[in-house]
Amino acid sequence: MVLSLIILVVGAYVIGDYVSGEIRDRVLNRTSALTALYVDSVVTPHLQELSEGHDISGEHRAALDQLLINSDPGEKIVTFKVWHFDGDVVYAKDTALIGERFPIGDALAQALAGSLATEVSSLDHPENALERLKWDQLIETYSPIREEGTGRILGAVEFYQDPDDLNSEIRGS
After folding, report:
1. Which of 133, 110, 108 is nearest to 123 (CA)?
2. ∠171-134-131 over CA atoms, to 5°?
3. Is residue 169 predicted with pLDDT exceeding 60?
4. Where are the alpha helices (DSSP H) in 44-162?
5. Is the pLDDT of residue 72 over 70?
6. How far is CA 97 from CA 14, 49, 122, 127, in A?
């Protein structure tokens, strides 16, 4: 009987852990996909000039600066970066990063290949110094930037969301 009880408890724990992980992954993917749709519809029009080079005009840069301030979906995004397809940062809140080139990690490579990529990041990469000052970890999502009309990949938007929002949504489900 004791052995059966132990097997039952261990089995319940393993199944509970699996189901919890599945719920977390699905909520994470749904949340990031919805936010990526917002980012694509609002951010991408300001980045079409990347088809001609690395520069974003002052007018579009100012519009990007305002995106997180004046929008409801933008409230879920704590910050974002824009990457050119060659690995250069072309927009970031931390302006010291603009023009810097960093190694292209798996998630960024996936976005530059045309797919959405999401992960919970511990912010241990060099380009995350500013984010590390305020957060221990963030949900990091990479969304491809496509040229209007051709669909050619111009770069990727990397946006960050606070995992507390995700955790409260998981607890609510």
Report:
1. 133
2. 100
3. no
4. 58-67, 106-112, 129-132
5. no
6. 43, 19, 19, 7
